[in-house]
Amino acid sequence: MSATPTSRELLAINGGTPVRKTLLPYGRQSVSEDDIQAVVQVLRSDWLTTGPKVGEFEEAFASSVGAKYAVSFSSGTAALHAAAFAAGLKPGDEAITSPMTFAATANCILYQGARPVFADVCRDTLNLDPEQALARVTAHTRAILPVDYSGHPADLDPILRLAEDRGLTVIEDASHALGAEYKERRVGSISHMTTFSFHPVKHLTTGEGGMVTTNPPELAETLRRFRNHGISSDARQRQSSGQWFYEMVLLGFNYRLTDIACALGISQLNQLDANVGRRRQIAAEYTAAFRTLPGVIVPSVREGVHPAWHLYAIRLDLARLTASRAEAFRALRAENIGVNVHYIPVHLHPYYRVNFDYKGGDFPVAEDAYEHLISLPLFHGMNDEDVTDVIHAVTRIVDHFAK
Ligand SMILES: Cc1ncc(COP(=O)(O)O)c(C=O)c1O
User: Fold this and answer.
1) Taking the model in full, what pTM does it have?
2) H runs (alpha helix) in 95-216
């Protein structure tokens, strides 16, 4: 397929031939033969869970992001919950976060009985605006949860300074940002705790899974206990020491990641640099193709930042188009381009409106961005033809709807 459409091609939505025969999803895992073999080996071993692969994955992950400790969890949501617990969040406390995220970031505050307080985002990156966050700090604030939206790290230095001044814990939700860098530091080594998700659309997958990285040993210990019912030792430690005695010292959960999943994680970690590199390459091709396309605003990248590109979210300049975002979205889907929208701002979900009195207009920058956003397919397994198809389809549609 050519990436340069002829003027006003007939769109698939109007009966034209779609750019692709089959749907290109917005995200997809890549699983290699080595990954499969790594999992099979564990299935043949003595330990399907709480075995040696867990520590091996955690050590390899910690070293890859430059943190002292990494503690694995059964999902990114469980990792967030554990971090909220380890930060000491409790009823009566408040924690500040971004509305431009998946609900799990704010939900983990609720799991601890604390109150989620949203603050608006920066117009360029759609990451938590440190000044807006500062304006929402009260005597009850205990934590702040910036989100590295789309894989572009949040403005961490001012957020960490604010946290230091007010004695807050920073839990960075880096579900999108494994492999990203902020001012020559790797994401995962900067905040008090950083959480990751290993859902299949992410840079590394374990099916479901998550991780918290941190430096203080006491936080790592609390996180380990929280994921294991609050018990002071795990089954393998007891087996190797020949003891039956254990104590439950806090109220935890079963949030353990299995050895099966950890073996997959170790094997996938070997591909991380290549995967992030491929995502960066695709993002650069999109930006080169769309930067001068009237009607499309490409994502911004701040100086000193190397995003990991979980998402490539364009914003439509609707003043220059005859279509709404919904029409452009439908037209792209008809071309078999699996576009998506990230995110409906969390405060607009009925649960948050009803229980916390949030309403439309509370966070104008996030809400305005939401009205214009479309996430294009981006995953490391995309081949060159996939990339060309996306560029062709976006160009075709924008050209068709140009004013
Ligand atoms: C920003 C963000 N936070 C948290 C999560 C939750 O991660 P998980 O699906 O692994 O529970 C996701 C998952 O998509 C996410 O994108």
Assistant:
1) 0.96
2) 104-111, 130-135, 156-166
